[in-house]
Amino acid sequence: QVQLVESGGGSVQPGGSLRLSCAASGRTFSSGYMAWFRQAPGMQRELLAAINWRSGGRSYYADAVKGRFTVSGGAAKNTIDLQMKSLKPADTAVYYCAADASIILSSLRQAKQYAYWGLGPQVTVSS
Fold it and tell me: Has residue 30 got a pLDDT over 90?
């Protein structure tokens, strides 16, 4: 059984930082992508960042988070972390870890293409 287990999240003031971690078990994703999405109330789930271990850890970022969020992790550990800084109230959402072993680059932003999902920790940015 494949599981993605997230940790981190919580509440932070604007301008603050948070780190999310996700560990996969049950299979490896060294040939596909691991990614972070978020979903705010009434909004579609959006891709924030993804990483591909086969390419040596090449990462991809949504324009909204470039320069503020950094994705990292390790193929051997089957993990993906998301370091978030300079957080804004607009970053408030449920954050989801996702993974798929066969997803292709052109489909990264399509949430429905990912086979596996974590439960999603809440991130709240508020003063």
Answer: no
pLDDT tens column, 63-96: 999 999 999 987 677 899 999 999 999 999 999 9
Are the CB atoms for 3 and 28 separated by under 8 Å? no
CA-closest candidate to residue 118, choices 39, 19, 36:
36
Q: What is the 3-state secondary structure (H, E, C) of the chain?
A: CCEEEEEECEEECCCCCEEEEEEEECCCCCCCEEEEEEECCCCCCEEEEEEECCCCCEEEECCCCCCCEEEEEECCCCEEEEEECCCCHHHCEEEEEEEECCCCHHHCCCHHHCCEECCCCEEEECC
Rounded (10°) CA dihedral 111, 46, 51, 34: -40
Residue in this structure with the two tokens 């109230």, named with its chain if needed? 89
Of 11, 8, 12, nearest in space to 20 by CA: 8
